[in-house]
What we know:
The protein is an alpha+beta fold. The chain has one domain (2-137): 2-Layer Sandwich (Beta Polymerase, domain 2). The chain is built from seven helices and five strands; from the N terminus they run H-E-H-E-H-E-E-E-H-H-H-H. It has helices spanning 2-29, 37-48, 68-75, 138-148, 151-162, 168-173, 176-188, and strands at 34-36, 59-63, 80-85, 88-93, 103-107. A five-stranded mixed sheet has the order 1-2-5-4-3. The radius of gyration is 16 Å and the shape is globular.
Amino acid sequence: xxxxxxxxxxxxxxxxxxxxxxxxxxxxxxxxxxxxxxxxxxxxxxxxxxxxxxxxxxxxxxxxxxxxxxxxxxxxxxxxxxxxxxxxxxxxxxxxxxxxxxxxxxxxxxxxxxxxxxxxxxxxxxxxxxxxxxxxxxxxxxxxxxxxxxxxxxxxxxxxxxxxxxxxxxxxxxxxxxxxxxxxxxxxx
Length: 189
C-alpha cells in the first residue's frame, strides 16, 4: 500500500509544481487565465471535503486566444514550450515533453469541439482556491463538464454534487440541454 500512496503523492506534488510554474508565468506577464477541467474540480471539491476529492491526470487552463503569443513567450523561462498537435494546444514541460505532463489550453468563448452545445465560458469573477490558484467558478465548471459530458465529466459532476457545490442558482443558469444532462447524471447515481 505504501507504494500506491507514494505514487499518488508524487503525482499530486508534480501537478501542483507544474501549475505553480504556469501560474507564476501568467502572473508575471499579467495574463488572465482560469484553471478548468478535472484538476479545477479536484481543488474545488477538496476545499469542501478532502476525502471526496478525486485526482486527475493533467492540467487544463482556459485562456484568451488573443494572448497565445504572449503566453508562449511568458512560459519559456518557466520551463514550458508551446506545441499544437492533434488539434490540441499545449504547453509541454521542456524537461519531460509528453502530452500527459503538459498544460492543455482551452480558449474562452470558443467551442472545444464543433458539436458541443456551448463554448468555454469567459473569465468570470472567482475566488482563488485555498492553494491560491485561479480556478474557474463552480458555475463555469458545471457548464463545461455538462457540455463535454464524457463519462469522466459526469463523474466530476457527481463529485461536485456530492459536496453540495451545485446550487439551485447554478442549476437555474443552465440551458435546457445542460439542465437535462445534470438530471441524467443525478438519475444515474
